[in-house]
């Protein structure tokens, strides 16, 4: 049985906590969005996002959301799926005061930077990077 089948089976049960956390505060959604192994993850991610019980803006112990994690790993498909959710907050900052846009910029994920920049809810910010002021706009 693959990841997708297991996730379907578990989501069909009403008695499980879909937002359960591991020792660092990751939920199943966090794992699907930020996993380095992306085989099958877009389908698993979509299954989780389709469940109304899943908290899309959940934060781990470092206040990173699933969007932070997907961006940090450069998972463009996951970022697109997350941005399609109407209740996503793309401006949340982690404990380092970084937004998903900051992670995309710092990781040189140009396509993801464009996605986030085109997304209407991005707050424009100016950060000192390498001694220079760079406007993310």
From TrEMBL:
Keyword line: ANK repeat, Repeat
Per-repeat ranges for ANK: 62-84
Superkingdom in the source lineage: Eukaryota
UniProt keyword annotation of ATP-binding present: no
A Pfam family hit: Ank_2
InterPro entries: Ankyrin_rpt (IPR002110), Ankyrin_rpt-contain_sf (IPR036770)
PANTHER family assigned to the protein according to its UniProt record, in alphabetical order: ANKYRIN REPEAT AND PROTEIN KINASE DOMAIN-CONTAINING PROTEIN, ANKYRIN REPEAT-CONTAINING PROTEIN-RELATED
Protein name: Ankyrin repeat-containing domain protein
Gene source species: Tuber borchii
Taxonomic lineage: Eukaryota, Fungi, Dikarya, Ascomycota, Pezizomycotina
